[in-house]
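Q: I'm writing up a methods section and want to include an example of the input and output format. Could you take the sequence below and give the corresponding predicted structure tokens, formatted cleanly so I can copy it straight into the document?
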Amino acid sequence: MERPDAEAPVIVVDKVSLAFDEKVVLKDVSFTLERGHTKVILGASGSGKSTILKIILGLLKPDGGSVFVNGERIDTMSETELMQVRMDLGMVFQEGALFDSLTVAENVGFKLYEESTMPPDEIRRRVEEVLGFIGLNDFIDRMPSELSGGQRRRVAIARAMAAKPGILLYDEATTGLDPITAITVDEEMVKLRDLENVSSIIVTHQLRDAFFVATREAVRRGDGYEIVAADARKCDEAEFIMLKEGVVAFEGNAAELRAAKDQYLRSFLS
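A: Here is the clean output for your methods example:
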């Protein structure tokens, strides 16, 4: 695959539609994701949020429209062609989806063991690096059953970033977590975006988490980092999409979403 254009959007979804029998799931959905930016997709259950991620991964084919990842049109690709595209995509699922029979290290390095030619000692070093980034290096040889819910989600993020993808997709990554634990997961999303220049799409119905990611930034402080309130430019870069019955009902930044007068949006925000 050719090296992606640094100035071009990393994801383009253009007039995508999908229906299962008579049920319309998505209708003429369009948006772009710029490199190093975050797109937050909101909506009620069944509005089509997670379906968009499956289409971007190539797990579902749209009935109409087109999808580009790093400049490559993927909705017409074969499964073999998609494997190359997916090397730059990381996915974090709602429940973490860790393998209970594998250690934390084996979970985090799973894709590298299975799909790369990297020597085992290099994989171990990469696993240590990403676990250090999320502050869980001390848990490297533990089993998933020994982790809290928040730790499992953060290990899932480490696994998604182990192969150094440029794009991360989060599907309800904080659902079921208490507010304090959810913030630790939100902070990892912010760190990856701001310190690693990872582009991300966050699917969620948790407004608290969506606004946290949109209005915070990570800045380096010596050998560490700090999460601070984002400036206006950074806040504008995090864009929201609100889906209503498979149609884009709103697209804009956090301030525009808060100021929206549409009754559906107001009821969702309340």
